[in-house]
Amino acid sequence: MKSTRSLPAMIATLLASPLAMATEIDPQRLSQLDQDIQRATPQLIELRHAIHQHPELGNREFDTAKRVAKRLRELGITVQTEVAHTGVVGILHGGKPGPVVAIRSELDALPVTEQTGLPYASSVTVPYSGNDFSQAGKTVGVMHACGHDAHIAIVLGVAEVLAKHKDSLPGTVKFIFQPAEEGVPVGEKGGARLMIEQGVLADPAPAAIFGLHVGPGASGSLSISRQRTTAAADTFVATVTGEQTHGAFPWAGIDPIPLAAQIVLGWQTIPSRQMDLVALPAPVISVGRIDAGVRSNIIPAQVRLEGTVRTLSQAQRDDVIERLRRTASKIAESAGASAHIEVTPTYPAGYNNSALVDALLPQLKASSALAVDIESGVYAADDFAEYSRRIPGVFFGLGVTPDGIDPAHTWPNHSPKFLMDDDALPVGVRALSRVTLAYLANNGFNLPAGVQP
Ligand SMILES: [Zn+2]
Ligand SMILES: [Zn+2]
Question: Which residues bind Mn(2+) (predicted)?
């Protein structure tokens, strides 16, 4: 499909585009970079396997953080530890003046029991500490099923190759290793938001932030969106309250079960019948859990519906949550029952800075032998959005499906069989190093202040 933007708007964008500026990095520096990455790769693969074998859940990444801090210190990088519980921040001061830029990696793994059969597979089990009440008190397997082990190795690889030529580096690079991207234990704070509360975007304040995420895709392929990256994810619990009675005479009470069924279907008419599908892709509303009743012939007093709603902007988010409430309460009211919804916001929708994407795209194209896929975002959520709503951010994808497996049919992130091809690691290091070097060498492309949208 062609762009739906008007021609004058496109011309204005082109005239303002930093692409018109030189985005080159010194060629000698680039060939040195490639050699450095090649030399570092075997150790990075080993490091990734070690982290994979010893995964830790959110806010409990004690050993992972120690490993990261130790490596950063070995590289001569200034290190802060225990930021937002277990976060580690490395600051590399270049020998020449220039802007400050940040690169982010997550530290945490997931409560998933690994089934890859790999020689370095995780056999770690721990008492569950996440926010899913149905898992409370259970012992769970732990696995780097989202590939954050690869992110750690890649960002440490970037730190290594940039630290090597620290004296000629025009600016400062802040390496942010944050805990708990996948969520925090009940009653705790964490993740990107807590890192920011504890000052990670200040002193020195990065003017932009970069990050990548591994996922299904040809090994070593890169993908990026010019705008929307990830969705806002809100979880909700709806309680539909009727009146308990015998299953043989429902008229003696108020049956909340058919009402709950009507509400689930009613919610599906929000994206399909009530949203302007031209303005923005539709929200996703999914009910993942329904809980009610004790036995077959008792109509219960209450039904509990748990779900997630994925939206693509703050305005869409507020609008859809209002519609969720209205649909539930009016359907319940129609039978004399009531419905109450509690919404827990998790992450906001993520957006890339388009001007920065345009400026950095040549670096991504030069980082992989495969064509860069220009995509339009996903409905998954990531708290990288917390940074990129405050400072210009660029978040891109790295395909890690091993050769011989169809990326369209492989196990996705969070699967107990999620696979990560080690050959993709140096591509990730190259891409992040090149965008960082280009940003520093071009004084941040003199982008206008502020973030999108
Ligand atoms: Zn994940
Ligand atoms: Zn992830």
Answer: 146, 148, 182, 213, 414
